[in-house]
Write a structure and sequence with these properties.
This protein has twelve helices and 17 strands. With 397 residues, the protein is α+β, with helices and mostly antiparallel strands. Strand 16 and strand 17 form a beta hairpin. Helix 7 packs antiparallel against helix 11. It is elongated and about 85 Å long.
């Protein structure tokens, strides 16, 4: 075979030549592609398309609005179809009325604002400054909290303390501080500052720090302290959840002028039911009464609250000058993870589910009462696995 001449060689090499680069896409197309990629990432992470609905995360609702608009505009569909590996654009009919809408993030956020209310902090329609953009990006950049099981009891405890009146909320003010271990309400969700990195001075000369913030929906964010402050200030419903009232909640002895408020009692059941007898040593009823304990348990064998059986008193704690109802709710909240789940039939055959029996050792009850008295109970949660109160979870530095 003879060697090819120069023209033939050039012709063969042309087949391996790099294709000529096309001019960059218009900014609008880049935004459309970037917005679609965010939706694709959501679908990959959650295994479903973003959905509308008030029970959905606000950013999922943003993606749902955006996807509707993309499906509705032929120009956008044509641009994105080559990269639509998940079939997102073909899964719903095009809405004719939406085809002429301008497809950009401002329009999407404006539409989202109409859904959520004009004052919602995550409405980004008027985002303009770099600082505000960074705040919005950090608020949006939430990820699933992999160790949320450690934080769930804290949120449940805080909610119980809010319901019982042990904690209060206060509107977030400009002078309010952000600190580790504190709870806030942002966008209708409870937010817990789990950790704060070493503070630094930002470009404007203000002290700032990177945070780890856990939200009660199981997500987390590592936004900056000043970003969280601005978000809370901008949110009309932004609030700080105050710490429990400091100081003893009750005294175990009376002083001049005091009147006894009642007694905390701890009972053990003598029931022969197998599910009761098997746990008799750690199964206790915890209650509060304003009268005598003996009178309270006089008809235990006829009362499903007492498991339709006689009981024995194993401990009592006198209390003074406190609301018995709030105290009982607090104790039950502490031991809620160990509440007995059993159904008892009363004398008439009606099924009753007692709510005051807990699978906890007497030592844990005694410690809980002491910590309620000295005001430190908010720092602890009950761990059924260890059968003891443990320090509320604090991440390692």
């Amino acid at each position: 075979m003879s060697d090819p001449d120069l023209d033939e060689l050039r012709a063969e090499l042309d087949g391996f030549a790099q294709p000529e680069k096309k001019a960059g896409r218009p900014a609008r197309e880049e935004r459309v592609i970037a917005g679609f990629e965010e939706i694709q990432n959501f679908v990959e992470k959650h295994g479903r398309t973003p959905q509308h609905g008030e029970d959905r995360d606000i950013f999922e609702r943003l993606y749902a609005v955006r996807l509707d608009r993309l499906r509705a505009q032929p120009e956008c569909r044509s641009l994105l179809l080559p990269m639509d590996r998940q079939g997102l654009l073909a899964s719903a009919p095009v809405a004719p009325d939406a085809a002429e809408d301008e497809m950009d993030d401002d329009a999407l956020r404006a539409a989202l604002g109409e859904m959520m209310g004009a004052d919602d902090i995550t409405q980004l329609r008027h985002v303009r400054t770099n600082v505000e953009k960074r705040v919005a990006e950090e608020i949006a950049n939430r990820e699933p909290c992999e160790d949320f099981q450690h934080f769930r009891p804290l949120f449940e405890q805080v909610q119980a303390e809010l319901s019982s009146g042990l904690r209060q909320t206060k509107a977030f003010e400009r002078k309010s501080e952000i600190a580790p271990g504190r709870f806030y309400i942002l966008g209708g969700q409870k937010a817990y500052v789990a950790a704060m990195e070493e503070p630094f001075v930002n470009e404007h000369g203000y002290t700032d720090a990177r945070l780890r913030v856990i939200f009660d929906n199981g997500t987390e964010s590592n936004l900056l302290m000043r970003s969280l402050q601005r978000a809370l200030q901008k949110d009309p419903a932004g609030r700080r959840i105050l710490d429990p009232v400091a100081g003893p909640l009750f005294a175990d002895h009376s002083e001049d002028g005091d009147e006894a408020s009642g007694t905390i009692y701890v009972l053990r059941s003598r029931s022969d039911l197998p599910e009761i007898a098997a746990h008799r040593d750690v199964l206790h009823k915890i209650g509060v009464t304003g009268g005598s304990v003996e009178q309270r348990i006089a008809n235990a064998s006829l009362d499903p609250t007492f498991l339709m059986a006689e009981v024995e008193v194993v401990a009592t704690y006198k209390l003074f000058n406190i609301s018995r109802t709030k105290l009982e709710n607090l104790i039950h909240r502490v031991f809620a993870p160990a509440r007995l789940d059993v159904e008892i039939k009363d004398r008439f055959g009606q099924a009753i589910v007692p709510r005051e029996w807990f699978l906890v050792p007497l030592s844990a009850i005694d410690e809980a009462v002491k910590r309620i008295k000295d005001g430190t109970i908010a720092e602890f949660v009950y761990d059924p696995g260890r059968a003891q109160l443990i320090q509320a979870y604090t991440p390692a530095p």
